[in-house]
Structure formats: structure tokens, C-alpha cells
């Protein structure tokens, strides 16, 4: 069985042993430093003094007649985040906050992810295996960044992305089992945008007026290094807010509409965003892309890993006016004096280009997830997100149960094409869970029996399950069969060990998430894509 599989020793290493360590009382878990080692606030830049920047775009190493090929190297780099200090970051191609991959629907991509990280984290001491998940993509199981499908230092793996879904905002980030939080915190997270004809044809902002905002928090020690303190596996709450890797930046804007793709890339922090003017955000997109129609909202809560596309219209302001993006905070995300500000927009003058300066009343009448109804469902399943004996679990079980079963154990086994209602329950008032389901897009039916928030009226893959909330959603399983993860996207919860899986279709389908396409040893050959006829 499983000839090219991880050995039993590896299984122990990646799952069972790690879980045994987690069973230690929290006091005995070695913690690098505590929050009292934080750098002085006087070393922070004054808010809105660091210039805003958009992350760089990845350039394909090759374009064949059908496919775009990329090579991305995960590596350590010294990055100036706080002015005058060099911080070690781990990122894709050494780009903290990037690089963005831009995809076109119907043109698949192959991304070779090379793990060139230090073998052991210099301060936290863990082995730096990785797995790369393209969040928002219906990838095959073996290319989905399954947590236990790891790539070690010196290895690489080619990830195949179909790019067959509607235009949307995706992101790729680390998913390596038990170290996702640390790896993502160090910077292994970036955007991936998918474009299609419908989206390109709408008169909404495009090009330089279509702007990614990856918002996250961080904290730094006295040496300016990223400080990792997860408060006994409850969460990381930094006092520095970064947008595209820069602290409280300021962006110059023209008097016109801008489209912002906002991703909460934090490990544990939720935001409640509001503009200092009290003016609305006009929501046009959610996780799964364009909403059926726009929705106008003046403040909203934004959980980890959710993506929202919003239009902000600066036309009504005068040149010289500053508009601040504020964070009002959410329960159970520790606030600091410095976390109420996110970034600023300085209005500099009239628009130099007025194309794509509209928001049509109808955006995407055929958003597939939004056609699902409760009446179509064959089955209802309940998932309780619960802390049990100090461990974060889903229905009392964890990823350790998956590993112990050689990846067979599943929480749900819908057939291909089945529609089901899934109910996510959080009975606690002490924490919330941003719950993510891989592979699918879903429609939120209700939350505690009430309709979803206006900004949630689009296809979703991650949902804010707040304190004492029960959220119901309707979901159709496909287009692929195989095993996929469901987990809390508070990455500290995920790593310890609130991660489950479901299987679409029969147990064996040739797409084993760990054994079908294991990582290869480096150095990576340069012949990526040579089997294809090249036009580039
Ligand atoms: Cu964004 Cu399973 O993750
Ligand atoms: Cu995902
Ligand atoms: Cu959680």
C-alpha cells in the first residue's frame, strides 16, 4: 500500500507526536517570549505616514498555449516593516504581503512552490514544513494544500489550479500541519485574483482602481522581530496593524470610485470596519466573487480569511480631505490604543480617468451559490465548534483523529452534486470561530434564525460564527470528489487542533490528498512545463 507514501515514522512526526505535545498542560508548552517583551510604542511610525503600496504581481516563468506557469520560492528575507528596523519575514519570493497572482478564468495555472525556508524556525524551534492552499479554489485534493501533505525544506511541489470558477478574490497561504499559524504570521500569505468576461465587462473600477488590501495585525519584540505569543493557544493579538505589509499606511486617491478587495489576513483578529466620514462601503463581492446586487453598509464585521470587495466613492470629498479606515473592534479580539486605525486615504484631486466609475444595480444575477435553497437539501448536518479539555475540536474530534486513521476518518460524506444544509454552532460567549469549508461556495441561510447580514448576501467559503451563534448554510458538493478540510480559520485554533475533513463521493478516487502527488526533492529542475508547446 501507498508505496510513495510518508512512512509511519513520518505520520508520527506530522500528526501523532505533535498532538501528544499539545496534550501537555499549557504551562509546559514552551513559549518563545511573552507580550511583555513587546517593542515600545515609540518605535511605531506615526499613523498614516508610511506610504501605501500594492503588492507586486507574480510574473509567469512561462506561458504555453493553454497554461500559465509560475515558480514561487518560500524564503526568509529581512524586511523593513517598522521604520529603521529589519524584521525577518518568511514569504513567497521574499515579498512580505505578495506577490499577487493574477489569473484568467479558463486558463489553468501550475505554480511550483519551492520550500527554501530555514529548516528550523530560528526563534520558535519548529521544523518548517509547508503546504500551500489556494483559498477559494476548487482544486483537486492533492493540490489543495491538505495540511498533512507537507513539503519540507529543500523540496518543492507543483500545484495545479484549474481557474474554472467565477471571477473572485482568492488568496494563497501556508497550511502546514500544526504550524500554519506561525508560517502565515511570518508572512506566507498573498493574494490571487481571478478575472472573467462578466467581471471585466461591468463598468466597475478596474486596473489601478481595483486595489487589494490585505489587513492583518502583528507584534514585534525589542529587536524588531515578529513576536509570536498565542496566549495559551487562544489567539494572537498584535498592536500593529499592517495593510499589504505596511503599518497604518496612507494612500493617495483621486475623486472617483475605487474598488478595494479586502482580505482579513490576521491569525486571530476580527475587525469591524468603518469610515471616519460615516459614509458607506458599497459591497459588490464576497468570497465567491460578485454578489447578485450591490449592498450599502456603513460598518461591518470582517472575520479572518473572508474577502469582501467594496466600492468607496471619494468623489464627494474635496482635494486635501483625509478619510480614515477605522476598526471599531469585535468582541474577543484584544484591542490596543493603536488598533483602532487601519489606514488613511488622502484625496489629492480630480480623477485622471473616469472609466469604470459606476456600480450597476445588477452585478451577477447567476451567482451559482446564491441559487441554492434549503428545499434542495437532502440532509442537514451539525458541526459544533467546541473547546474540550483545552483542545479546540469539531464535534469533539480533531485532526489527530484524521491522522490516526491514515486520513480516512471523515465528519461528513456527501455524494457528488448533493445539496446539504450545514449548521455551525458556537455555544461559547468567550470566543468566535471563522469557519472555512474547502472546495465549495455556500449561501448563508440564517444566523440564530435571523437573515444573514447584508454584506453576506453573496457566495461564501468562510463564515463568522460569533459568540453564541448558530449559522446555517446551504451548500452543493462538487465539482470534485475526494477529501477536503473544514476548519476554524483562527489559525491558532486550527493548529490546536480544530480541523476536520469531509469526503465527496466514494472513499477511493485516485486523488488521495497526501499520497497522490507528494513533494519532490530539490533542487527544482528548470524544465517546468516543457511538455507543453510554448508560446511565451
Ligand atoms: Cu484559508 Cu484551509 O484555509
Ligand atoms: Cu480554502
Ligand atoms: Cu476558532
From TrEMBL:
The record's listing under Gene3D superfamilies reads: Cupredoxins - blue copper proteins
Give positions of region: Disordered. Answer: 510-536
**Residues in Plastocyanin-like domain copies:** 79-196, 414-506
| MF GO annotations | copper ion binding; oxidoreductase activity
In terms of SUPFAM superfamilies, this protein maps to: Cupredoxins (SSF49503)
Biased segments, Low complexity type: 516-527
Q: Which family does it belong to?
A: Belongs to the multicopper oxidase family.
Q: Report the protein name in the record.
A: Bilirubin oxidase
Species of the source = Streptomyces populi
Amino acid at each position: 500500500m501507498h508505496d510513495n507514501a510518508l512512512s509511519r515514522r513520518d505520520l508520527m512526526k506530522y500528526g501523532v507526536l505533535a498532538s501528544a505535545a499539545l496534550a501537555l498542560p499549557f504551562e509546559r508548552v514552551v513559549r518563545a517570549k511573552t507580550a511583555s517583551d513587546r517593542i515600545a510604542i515609540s518605535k511605531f511610525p506615526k499613523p498614516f505616514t508610511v506610504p501605501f503600496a500594492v503588492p507586486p504581481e507574480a510574473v509567469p516563468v512561462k506561458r504555453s498555449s493553454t497554461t500559465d506557469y509560475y515558480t514561487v520560492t518560500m524564503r526568509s528575507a529581512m524586511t523593513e516593516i517598522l521604520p529603521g528596523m529589519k524584521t525577518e519575514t518568511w514569504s513567497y519570493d521574499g515579498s512580505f504581503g505578495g506577490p499577487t497572482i493574477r489569473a484568467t478564468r479558463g486558463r489553468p495555472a501550475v505554480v511550483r512552490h519551492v520550500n527554501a525556508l530555514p529548516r528550523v524556525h530560528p526563534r520558535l524551534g519548529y521544523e518548517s514544513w509547508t503546504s500551500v492552499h489556494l483559498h477559494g479554489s476548487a482544486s483537486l485534493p492533492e493540490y489543495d494544500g491538505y495540511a498533512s501533505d507537507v513539503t519540507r525544506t529543500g523540496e518543492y511541489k507543483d500545484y495545479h489550479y484549474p481557474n474554472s470558477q467565477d471571477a473572485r478574490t482568492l488568496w494563497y497561504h501556508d497550511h502546514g500541519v500544526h504550524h500554519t499559524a506561525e508560517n502565515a504570521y511570518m508572512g506566507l500569505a498573498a493574494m490571487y485574483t481571478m478575472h472573467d468576461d462578466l467581471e471585466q465587462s461591468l463598468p466597475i473600477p478596474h486596473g489601478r482602481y481595483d486595489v487589494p488590501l490585505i489587513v492583518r495585525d502583528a507584534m514585534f519584540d525589542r529587536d524588531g522581530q515578529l513576536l509570536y505569543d498565542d496566549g495559551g493557544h487562544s489567539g494572537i493579538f498584535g498592536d500593529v496593524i499592517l495593510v499589504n505589509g505596511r503599518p497604518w499606511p496612507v494612500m493617495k486617491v483621486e475623486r472617483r470610485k475605487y474598488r478595494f478587495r479586502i482580505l482579513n489576513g490576521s491569525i486571530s483578529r476580527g475587525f469591524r470596519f468603518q469610515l471616519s466620514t460615516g459614509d458607506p462601503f458599497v459591497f459588490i463581492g464576497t468570497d465567491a466573487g460578485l454578489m447578485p446586487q450591490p449592498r450599502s453598509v456603513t460598518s461591518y464585521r470582517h472575520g479572518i480569511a473572508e474577502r469582501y470587495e467594496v466600492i468607496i466613492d471619494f468623489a464627494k470629498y474635496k482635494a486635501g480631505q483625509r478619510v480614515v479606515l477605522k476598526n471599531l473592534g469585535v468582541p474577543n479580539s484584544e484591542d490596543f490604543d493603536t488598533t483602532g486605525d487601519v489606514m488613511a486615504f488622502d484625496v489629492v484631486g480630480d480623477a485622471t480617468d473616469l472609466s469604470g466609475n459606476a456600480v450597476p444595480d445588477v452585478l451577477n444575477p447567476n451567482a451559482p451559490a446564491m441559487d441554492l435553497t434549503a428545499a434542495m437539501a437532502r440532509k442537514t448536518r451539525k458541526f459544533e465548534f467546541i473547546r474540550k479539555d483545552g483542545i479546540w475540536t469539531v464535534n469533539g474530534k480533531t485532526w489527530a483523529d484524521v491522522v490516526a486513521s491514515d486520513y480516512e476518518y471523515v465528519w461528513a460524506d456527501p455524494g457528488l452534486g448533493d445539496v446539504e444544509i450545514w449548521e455551525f454552532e458556537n455555544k461559547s460567549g468567550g470566543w468566535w470561530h471563522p469557519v472555512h469549508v474547502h472546495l465549495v461556495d455556500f449561501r448563508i441561510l440564517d444566523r440564530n434564525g435571523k437573515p444573514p447580514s447584508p454584506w453576506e448576501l453573496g457566495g461564501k467559503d468562510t463564515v463568522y460564527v460569533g459568540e453564541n451563534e448558530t449559522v446555517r448554510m446551504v451548500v452543493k458538493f462538487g465539482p470534485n470528489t475526494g477529501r477536503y478540510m473544514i476548519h476554524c480559520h483562527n489559525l491558532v485554533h486550527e493548529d490546536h487542533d480544530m480541523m476536520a475533513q469531509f469526503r465527496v463521493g466514494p472513499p477511493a478516487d485516485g486523488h488521495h490528498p497526501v499520497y497522490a502527488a507528494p513533494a519532490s526533492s530539490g533542487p527544482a529542475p528548470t524544465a517546468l512545463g516543457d511538455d507543453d508547446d510554448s508560446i511565451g
